[in-house]
Request: fold
Amino acid sequence: MPHKKKKVRKKRGSRTHGYGQVGQHRGGGQRGGHGKVGFQKHKWTYTVKYDADRFGKHGFKPPTKREVRVINVGELDEQIGRLLANKQAEKTKDGVKVYLNRLGYDKLLGKGEVTRPLSVQVESHSKSAAEKIEETGGKISGTKQ
Reply:
C-alpha cells in the first residue's frame, strides 16, 4: 500500500542518499555487472535455479548421417487402396506397381502379411520382404539387399 512516508523523502537534497562520496550505487557494478556476466561466478545460484542448461555440452548430430525411411510390407499392403485412389500406384495386369522412392521411402522391410501381388521398386529391401512379395506372385526390384 503506498504511503507518503517513504525513505526517499527523507533523503531529498542529500545528493548521495547515503551511498558514499563518489558515484556509488550508480553503475553496473552495484548489480554485479551488465547483462549475463557472472553466471559462472558470483551469479551461480541464479544459474543453478533458473537456467541450469546454460553451460556444458548438449549433444551432437553428425552432419553425414542420413536417416533411412522404412516401411514394412504389411503397412504397404494396407495402404494400397489409398495409393491407387491418389494415383500414387498403378494397377497392372500382374498386380499393383508401386514406386517407393517417389513416396519418400528408402527401404522395404518384411514385417506383416502381403495379400495381393505387388510389383515394388525400392532402393533397398530385406530378404524377408523379398520372399513375402515373391510368394504372392509379385516382384521386387532394388539395388541393395
Remarks:
- The two ends are 78 Å apart (CA to CA).
